[in-house]
Amino acid sequence: MVDGICEIKSVDRQKVIRVKEEMLSYTDVQELANIYKAMGDETRITILYALSCAELCVCELTQLLDISQSAISHQLRLLRNLRLVKYRKEGKQVFYSLDDEHILNLFSQGIAHIQHR
Amino acid sequence: MVDGICEIKSVDRQKVIRVKEEMLSYTDVQELANIYKAMGDETRITILYALSCAELCVCELTQLLDISQSAISHQLRLLRNLRLVKYRKEGKQVFYSLDDEHILNLFSQGIAHIQHR
DNA sequence: ATAACACATGAGCATGTATTCATATAAAGA
DNA sequence: TCTTTATATGAATACATGCTCATGTGTTAT
Prior knowledge:
The structure is a homodimer.
Chain A: H1 13-22, H2 26-39, H3 42-53, E1 56-57, H4 58-65, H5 69-81, E2 85-90, E3 93-98, H6 102-115
Antiparallel strand pairs in A: 1-3, 2-3
Chain A binds a DNA duplex through residues 1-2, 6-8, 41, 43, 57-59, 67-77, 89, 91-94.
């Protein structure tokens, strides 16, 4: 292969050009990657799934998750920055919930995938 | 907070117990994380998206992706192991395609999410 | 005012991961 | 057979990430 271009005659240049035109923009790819990256961690999946069941404060999440309160707060900040969760303060407590119904759909598609095999 | 249990009287123990019962199993969480982790990388998203447009050989992917052929092969192996792509040999070439229609749904949900804001 | 509590955050560390480089393998052609 | 081409893979490296620990911030209660 020379310069990433294989010389096989049968390579369908037209197909490659067509696919190139259909490709996602770089910013779209980045945004998609951020969402899937957010869901690509066992702790965050557990948090998001728990929040899909009920609105929960940090303390309650800590009771559900077997890791430190600090670790959970760090992950919540990440999810907040990506706008996957929103929060509401009530006295000393902070209650988190899902910010977007699409996340539920992402979950159900993912679950459909693992059940499919 | 003592031992991960906050003493606020208003904390709804019943709610926490109910959520705990609804939680995903650890293996489900792991499998979900693996899928999202696979899609949580810009290179892999680009590969998967390209394959959603057409069946492509490694050489054609190399023309589309601006990284080395080696890097692409490494990523394809990962996607193969997760059964997100399948392949077909034809002489020297190896043609890859998506292994599962759920991935398209995962994409469309993700795209819906980034367009939603 | 002071203490206790719920939560957030910075630092540091250990582990994971994505890439390149060099090289191996396998098919096709000369 | 010897070379070229298409792909795969192991090693090394640079970077990202998830956790804990220590501490900071803001709120409530005494």
